[in-house]
Amino acid sequence: MYNVALIKFKNISSECGHLIPIEGKIDIPYEIKRIFYIYGVPKDKKRGNHSHRSLYEILICLKGSLKVKVQNGREEEVYVLNNEYEGLMIGPWIWNEMFDYSDDCVLLVLCSDKYDESEYLRDYDVFLKEVNEIYKENKLC
Ligand code: TYD
């Protein structure tokens, strides 16, 4: 799906454990301008339910597991995130929903930009309308 990719990070392992370095524009396609992390999500709760107009983010499950559904109004995919060495990159015009968090889940998110509520799409119908306009202009494939 456009604007969705699973990235496998370089893992420097030794008898002393593992180290995963992530440098902007080297290990991921953009400079990191913000991080946030999520934990303590009850099993029956969902997060996300939005899309972005410009933001790229990479979701890394540092502990436990969760599922992420991504969709663009035409197709959908569900990813299980349950390891520290992979990140799910989600770019603009992808509606995402995060659910089935394990009790111990810690989710780290690396963002391409500062927090800006105005670039969020939180209404699914508005998202579909805008994404369909962009399809018509052949800007997404
Ligand atoms: P939201 O993006 O809706 O979280 P989720 O998609 O995980 O459910 O954000 C929840 C609240 O936190 C909302 O009031 C905005 C605020 N927030 C910030 O202040 N800074 C941030 O970097 C993020 C991601 C959210």
TrEMBL record:
Pfam families in the record: FdtA
InterPro entries assigned to the protein according to its UniProt record, in alphabetical order: QdtA_cupin_dom (IPR008894), RmlC-like_jellyroll (IPR014710), RmlC_Cupin_sf (IPR011051)
Span of domain Sugar 3,4-ketoisomerase QdtA cupin: 3-131
Taxonomic superkingdom: Bacteria
Protein name: FdtA/QdtA family cupin domain-containing protein
Highest classification ranks of the organism: Bacteria, Bacillati, Bacillota, Clostridia, Eubacteriales
